[in-house]
Amino acid sequence: MLTETNAILWPSLVTASALLLYFIVTINVGRARFKYKVSPPQVTGNPDFERVLRVQQNTLEQMILFLPSLWLCAQFISPIFAAAIGAVWIIGRILFAWGYYQAAEKRAVGFGISTLATVALLGGSFTGIIMSILKL
Prior knowledge:
By secondary structure, the protein is mostly helical. It has helices spanning 4-7, 9-36, 47-76, 79-102, 108-135. Helix content is 84%, strand content 0%. Helix 3 packs antiparallel against helix 4 (79-102).
């Protein structure tokens, strides 16, 4: 039986996984700085380095929408549904990073997948909140 306490384990696992992903792309920036000889505070100069940096920056930008949407959707719709969509977001971000590291034009599929996942979570959040308000 899925209890309230057990139910939040799934979005918690997705949250921890998203944070681990962000940690990895951040480490990749440091590795790229060394590889392409781009010393701090420089953020430009080598296109290969700039793509690695953009993956990290864009992932941070997307997490601002993703994490609250994940938890609101988990609270007002379903923790399992939110976690499943959150896992899709993580897969999308991995594909985004993998593609972008190779070439800027290869980032689109991963970006699209993660964006659709965020839209689904945000839509679920609003739907669940409005349904809860209407029940009052």
